[in-house]
Amino acid sequence: MSAKASSSQLSVSSSGSGGLSHVYIQHPPLRCNVPGSRGLFYDDGNKLLFSPTSDQVFSWKAVPFDPHVSPTSDSISEGPILSIRYSLDAKIIAIQRSSLEIQFFHRETGQNFCHKCKPESDSILGFFWTDCPQCDFVLVKTR
């Protein structure tokens, strides 16, 4: 499977607090040729663009962006993808599979595990990795 991206300009926008919220893809637009792609995702913690397929995720460094650099690729298991982010040390991939489940893949060992909420409890709205001394991962839920 081949994957290519090309663009002349890619810039990251940050809010007044210094937090990154989104990426601007300027003219000409980014071209991503990943067969079976399930869309593009942006990881603001690592400044990465992701293009997952049914069994792999391709990632490109967004800052600085070089359209001539090939993406990195990681194997993942089949399933829906609502959100995807690497841990800040890039050792773990977290994938939100539904409003009740997040799956974690250890990139070096291949081990994976899931966090599931009870259907009658809160729903997962999103998640992010943090460099806070008290925790590495923040799960945002409805309550």
From TrEMBL:
<dbReference type="GO" id="GO:0031902">
    <property type="term" value="C:late endosome membrane"/>
</dbReference>
<feature type="domain" description="Regulator of MON1-CCZ1 complex N-terminal">
    <location>
        <begin position="40"/>
        <end position="142"/>
    </location>
</feature>
<dbReference type="InterPro" id="IPR040371">
    <property type="entry name" value="RMC1"/>
</dbReference>
<dbReference type="Pfam" id="PF21029">
    <property type="entry name" value="RMC1_N"/>
</dbReference>
<protein>
    <submittedName>
        <fullName>COLON CANCER-ASSOCIATED PROTEIN MIC1</fullName>
    </submittedName>
</protein>
<dbReference type="GO" id="GO:0035658">
    <property type="term" value="C:Mon1-Ccz1 complex"/>
</dbReference>
<dbReference type="GO" id="GO:0005765">
    <property type="term" value="C:lysosomal membrane"/>
</dbReference>
<dbReference type="InterPro" id="IPR049040">
    <property type="entry name" value="RMC1_N"/>
</dbReference>
<dbReference type="GO" id="GO:0010506">
    <property type="term" value="P:regulation of autophagy"/>
</dbReference>
